[in-house]
Amino acid sequence: MAIPSEGENIQIHSYKHNGQIHRVWQETIVLKGTKNIVIGANERTLVTESDGRTWLTREPSICYFHAEHWFNIICMLREDGVYYYCNMSSPFVYDNQSLKYIDYDLDVKVFPDMSYTLLDEDEYEAHRKEMGYPEVIDKILYRNLDKLYSWIKQRKGPFAPDFINVWTNRHHFHKQLRFHD
Predict the structure, then answer these.
(1) Is 9 part of any known ligand binding site?
(2) Which residue, 36, 50, 60, 112, could crosslink 43 as a Cys pair with Cβ 3.0–4.6 Å?
(3) CA-to-CA distance for 170 and 134, rounded, in angstroms?
(4) Contact 105, 124 (CB under 8 A)
């Protein structure tokens, strides 16, 4: 499998279980790329929805993707703190300058105080029936949801106290490099 290089600009493609494109983020700069982990950053990037609508992200974000866990984590840097949007999803694949995953509807929003809430259970149930998610997917997702909750409570991965500082500093470094090119 190809691995994105640090400093490379990639797209992020989110799909649904039926293979349909869900959402595309036009530009994300790779801060770390290994076979198991991709950490990226974007700021005011163009997002295209499946119906063609577009919008710009509002705040800088650090994005965390893993090739073995069934979730990804978007750390949104706002004035009042870091908010985390966690998508229950397939592990990522990297192909043709694009990081790709299947979005499985369930989301967890984590607030700056590390309280959290599960979102979109109704959407998950509707899509599970409509697209025929196999029972094994259901079990994998709920097992990974428990793992995600554990990470939040233990302040592990992107929830660790120093994660945001390390990766925002790396993002600023890459922005400076581009500014001087």
Answers:
(1) no
(2) 60
(3) 40
(4) yes
Tell me if residue 23 is catalytic.
Answer: yes
Contact 86, 103 (CB under 8 A): no
| Active-site residue (options: 23, 128, 155, 170) | 23
* This prediction's pTM: 0.95
What tens digit of pLDDT does each residue of 80-131 get? Answer: 999 999 999 999 999 999 999 999 999 999 999 999 999 999 999 999 999 9
pLDDT at 1 over 70: no
For the chain, count helices (H), then strands (E).
3, 11
Domains of the chain from N-terminus onward: 9-175 (2.40.380.10)
Task: Provide φ and ψ at 54, rounded to 5°.
Answer: -130, 155
Q: Is 51 annotated as a binding residue?
A: no
- 103 is known to lie in a ligand binding site: yes
Residue 168 has pLDDT above 80, yes or no: yes
Residue 123, annotated as binding a ligand: yes
By CB atoms closer than 10 A (0-12, 13-18, 19+), residue 79 is: exposed
pLDDT digits (tens, 9 = 90+) for 15-74: 999 999 999 999 999 999 999 999 999 999 999 999 999 999 999 999 999 999 999 999
Strands (E), 19-157: 21-33, 37-42, 46-49, 54-56, 61-66, 71-78, 81-89, 93-95, 98-110, 116-119
